[in-house]
Design brief:
single chain; 96 residues; DNA Methylphosphotriester Repair Domain; methyltransferase activity; DNA binding; Ada-like_dom_sf; Ada_DNA_repair_Zn-bd
């Protein structure tokens, strides 16, 4: 039986196959990431239209490097730091 693999996004925003599961989920079009148990993401998944845009990251550093921002719902403190420019990435005007 082949080993289990997962498709994750790398720091360059491109998918790759990993032998480790992602620790964070994200939304490709909205360029945000959050916890896998985020109530907002789970509600969107239950409604249906979200799954095609779902991506996964190995860790927060990779998500940030790929240009994604923290979710304000499940990661409010990380979102506040990102918004203040304290996560080492610039806030883009179209994302404020």
């Amino acid at each position: 039986m082949p080993a289990k693999t997962w498709t994750l996004l790398g720091a360059d925003g491109r998918p790759f196959t990993s032998d480790r599961p992602g620790t964070l989920g994200g939304h490709r079009r909205n360029k945000l990431y959050g916890r896998l148990d985020c109530r907002s993401a789970l509600q969107a998944l239950a409604r249906g239209g979200y799954q095609a845009q779902r991506v996964f990251f190995l860790d927060e550093a990779t998500a940030l490097a790929a240009g994604y921002r923290p979710c304000a719902v499940c990661m409010p403190e990380r979102y506040r730091l990102w918004k203040a420019g304290e996560l080492g990435v610039q806030v883009k005007p179209d994302r404020e």
